[in-house]
Structure formats: structure tokens, C-alpha cells
Amino acid sequence: MFETTVEVIIICIKVGVAGMVLFSLPIPLTWVERKVAGHIQVRLGPFRVGPHGILQPVADMVKMLLKEDVIPTKADKWLFMLAPIMTMVPAFAVFVAIPVGDKFTLPFIGKDITLYMSDMNVAVVYILAVSGLSIYGIIFGGWASNSKYAVMGGLRSAAQMISYEVAMSFAAVGVVMLSNSLSLVEIVKSQSGGLFHWNFLYLPVGPVWFMIFFIAGLAEVNRIPFDLPEDEGSLAAGYHVEYSGMRFAFFMLAEYIAMVTISVLAVIFFLGGWDDPTGVIPLPPILWFVGKVAAFIYLFMWIRFTLPRYRYDQLMTIGWKILIPVSLVCVLVTGLMRI
Amino acid sequence: MRDSRIETVKVKSLESGVRWILKRTFFVDFIKGLMVTLGYNLSKGVTLRYPDEEKWIPYRRFRGVHTLNRDLDGRELCVACELCVKACPTRCITVVPMEDSTGKGISDRVAGVWKVDLVRCLFCGYCEDACPTTAVRLGRGYERACFDLSSAVLDKEKLLLPEEVPPDLDGGVIVAASFERTGAGMKVNADFTKLKGDWLKMQG
Ligand code: SF4
Ligand code: SF4
Question: Nearest CA to CA, how far is A316 from chain B (Å)?
Fold first, then answer.
């Protein structure tokens, strides 16, 4: 009985910490994104609120909170209010299955604490399934707004996510074949032992799987060059064009968290998770993990301010005519290599 | 259906075809582009941090806020001939002549009132062209933001004050500055001794 209570308390603490971290993550991320944008465009980025504009996200948040919450008259009110939450909840729920480290022992008590909420044996499937749910929020948001732009954005997003979900799942299949497990902790463990054990360097298929996963991931989280659902040029802001204030902020929050999720997954699937690439630098594993994820997030922002947006038909071509055939070939090659 | 292709491939020879495929497979153009933006990301921005840290000092030819000048003995050069009033396309200068034999001006006739409405002025410089005694000159001041339009009308007392930019400073440079906001208004305090760089060079 006592043991169970302790377990429950530990899980509650973990959920609380993870929730808080996830809720506050977009605050520094928006700042970083605008700084990266600024410097890539030879500007300074936000500079006036706080030293180097560090308090800009706080100012933005206050602004968002004070904004009027507009619901269009002809909108479907229930769906309209539900949609931001429907996008946000799956983005958070994914993190139930995501490990950020193996385990550490609490000093003095000698109790092992695992750095994940649950080590599901089907974590990969769970993540693909749950993250796919967030598309409902986007479609509902677009539909309920009763606006042409929003509907177009929502529909594009549906088509895009469904197409790239296939390629992404194939990439996950590749990883599962390489690591012989569906559990994320096992996948990381199978890559331990330095740089050359990482799935990324499992030649020749590792890099290909990685690129498929990365491109599909970009499309999945609607980042440039695949941000067609919110294409400013032709759709104003796409599915969230009618949203304002906090509801809009929820969409943004979900988007940033999705970006973090994809980065985390890329690190776990291909870059050895919390594994130390050299085996000699005595850094705590969690720092390796955070460092790799941060590098990925930077890469996402870097790409955003480098590439233009693809046309819609190009997007579909890349998904169906390139990524999926390549993944099929890759499955075959990986299978032959693993015999 | 050709339009739906990512790029129309014109394979001229086997070699160029192979190169085309290799380029796409290894994301060559993509990496080149990323390198360009990375270079910019690491380079220093060209943003002028006005008014917090830097301020641009215009060239001498700049046409900013008017100044009224004196000769070497300190007498007012303006003889209140009102030519500038006539020349002004926006009629924003008001001159009321006055007799004065105390030697305040270079002649017996001085301007009793000389004011310019900077809200209407378009800084064309016709007034300084018209002036026979080089009394009115367009200076290098350009910070005219104000809360109250009445302070945009400058009268003789203000215009006769020496300019803020020291006359021996050639323009086209950036100097250190600080921004001050008080109840009375805003002010940019420039430190003309601390040069921070050449404007033209900064533009690369
Ligand atoms: S600069 Fe032109 S508009 Fe301004 S006061 Fe002189 S003549 Fe008039
Ligand atoms: S400023 Fe020059 S042009 Fe104008 S009234 Fe005086 S002397 Fe005449």
C-alpha cells in the first residue's frame, strides 16, 4: 500500500514538473526564434523590453491576455472554443511516453527515480497515434470559424498531415527495425556506446531514414518550408485566422510544443537520446539530451529563415512520390541488412 | 501535368543527369543556402541602436532645423528683408522688422519677430537660398518629435542659439548617445567626442 502511494506521488510530481516545463517552454522559444530571425536578417531582433529583449515574451503574454476574445457571430461556438484545446491536449499527452533520461538515484534515500512517466512497450505507436489527434483541433478550428481562409487552411493541413503521417510512420518502422523495440527507452539503449552506434550512422540506411523522418517531421509540425496551412501569403493566417487572444496563444503553444516533440523524437530515434557521443566527456546524460534537442530546435528555426515555402502540389509530390517510395525501398534494404 | 513536377528536368547528357541526381540526393543547394544564412546569423547586425546607444550625425549638406546666425562680432546677420518669407513655398516663416540702432544687428533694421512653423516647413532650403546675408541656414538638427504642436514653432531666441552639433564635426558619422525620458519630454543626449563608426562603411 505504502509503495503504491509513493509511486503515485512520484508520478504526480513528474507530471507537474513536465507540465510546467512544457507550458513555459514556448516563452523562451518565441524569444529565441525572433532573435534567430533578427540575426539571420542582419537585424537585432527584440531589444527594448529587458536586456536584449529577454522580457519580450512576457510582454507579449500580457498583451495576449488583455486582448478581446473574438468569436465570429456565424461561427460554430462549441467547436470554435474546443479547437484550441483539442490541438493542445495531444501535444502535451505525447510527453507521457517520452523519456528524457534513464534513471538516477535520490541521494540519502537510495531510491531510483526514472526520468520518464511510463516506459510503454508500444511508445512509438502511442506517440504516432496521439500526435496525429492534434489535427482534429486544426480541422475543427478551420471549420468552426466559418471563414474561407480558415477552412482552406484546415483542409490543407488535413491533407498534409495525413500524407506525411505515412512517411513518418515508415521512418518510425525503420527505427523499430534497427533497434528491435517499440519502447523509446529500449531504442535509446540500443544506440548506447558512442557516435557509431547511433541509428543515424547505421550505414547506408540510417541517414536516409533520418532525412525521411526529418522532412516528414517538418511537414507534420507545419514549419516552413511546409507551413501551407498557415500560409500568410495566400491564406492570411490559415486555420487560426479568426482566433485572437488566449485561444490564438493556445494554437501557438501547441505548435511550439509539437516542434519540441519532433526534435525530441529525432534525438531519441536517431541521435542516441541521452547517450554521450564521445564516451569521455563527463556531462550528465540529461545535459546531452537537452543539448541535442536544443541543436535541433535551432535547426528548425534556421531552416525557417532560409527556405521559401513550397507550393501545395510540390508538397504533395515530395510526400507521395519521393518520401514514400524511398521509405519502401529503405524498409526492404533495412530488412535485408537485419537478417 | 508537367507543372506539378518540382523542377523540369532537362537531362542534356548522362553526366549532367548524374550530377543533377547527386545534387538532389545530398541536398547540396539546400546546404549552400543554410551556410549563407548561418553566415548572416553569426555576423554583426547593421541596426543603428538609436536612440539608446548610437546616433547618426548628418553631413553638412543636410537640411534640418533652421538656425539664425551672427557675424564674427556677434551681431545678428538678419536684416529683416523678408525675402525668405517670399521665397518660402509653404509660407511658414513670419518676419516682423524692427528698427534698432543699438548695434544688435549688422544694420539698423533687425527682425523683431522671426519665427518658423516647422510643422509646415518642408525643408526645401529656399529660405537659405533667398537670404542675402546668409542669416538663415538649415542646420543638422532633426529630432523634432513633440507632444504639443505649439513647440514646433521656433522663434528667434531659440534659432539664435548655437547648434547642438559642433561646427567642426564633419557629418556622416555615428556617435555614442543615450536616451532620456522625463516628465518634460524626451531627449537624446549625444556625446560628440565618442565616434562609433563611419555610416558609409557600416553600410558595407
Ligand atoms: S526650408 Fe523651405 S519650407 Fe522651410 S522655411 Fe525654408 S523656404 Fe520655407
Ligand atoms: S533671414 Fe535672411 S532673407 Fe530672411 S529676413 Fe533675415 S536677412 Fe532677410
Answer: 9
